[in-house]
């Protein structure tokens, strides 16, 4: 690739650098990205999250996300994951 030098002007993660040298789309599914390490939300988890949000949304003086995390049946979800999923939904 004659234009590869232009790519070197911008910051690359180790995964992107590996992909540049081995060819694009050379990484297998789930390699090199942190997002793929996060388990996806199942429809049941989304439904539970939606119900918990509507339940604790009206509580005054309390942190909605803390209440959701305390009552979320699936352990291992972080505050950031819950907030990101609520925004996405």
From TrEMBL:
Q: Where is this region: Disordered?
A: 23-42
Q: Could you tell me where the Polar residues compositional bias lies?
A: 23-36
Q: List the Gene Ontology MF annotations in alphabetical order.
A: DNA binding
Q: Which Pfam families match?
A: HTH_TIMELESS (PF26019)
GO annotation terms (biological process): DNA repair; DNA replication checkpoint signaling; replication fork arrest
Tell me which InterPro entries the record gives.
Answer: Timeless
Coiled-coil spans are none
Which domain of life does the UniProt lineage start with? Eukaryota
Cellular component GO terms, alphabetical? replication fork protection complex
Q: What is this protein's name?
A: TIM protein
Gene name for this UniProt entry: Timeless_2
């Amino acid at each position: 690739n004659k234009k590869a030098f232009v790519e070197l002007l911008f910051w690359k993660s180790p995964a992107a650098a590996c992909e540049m040298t081995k060819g694009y789309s050379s990484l297998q599914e789930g390699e090199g990205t942190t997002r793929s390490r996060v388990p996806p939300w199942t429809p049941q988890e989304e439904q539970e999250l939606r119900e918990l949000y509507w339940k604790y949304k009206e509580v005054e003086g309390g942190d909605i996300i803390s209440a959701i995390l305390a009552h979320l049946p699936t352990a291992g979800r972080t505050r950031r994951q819950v907030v990101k999923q609520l925004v996405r939904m």
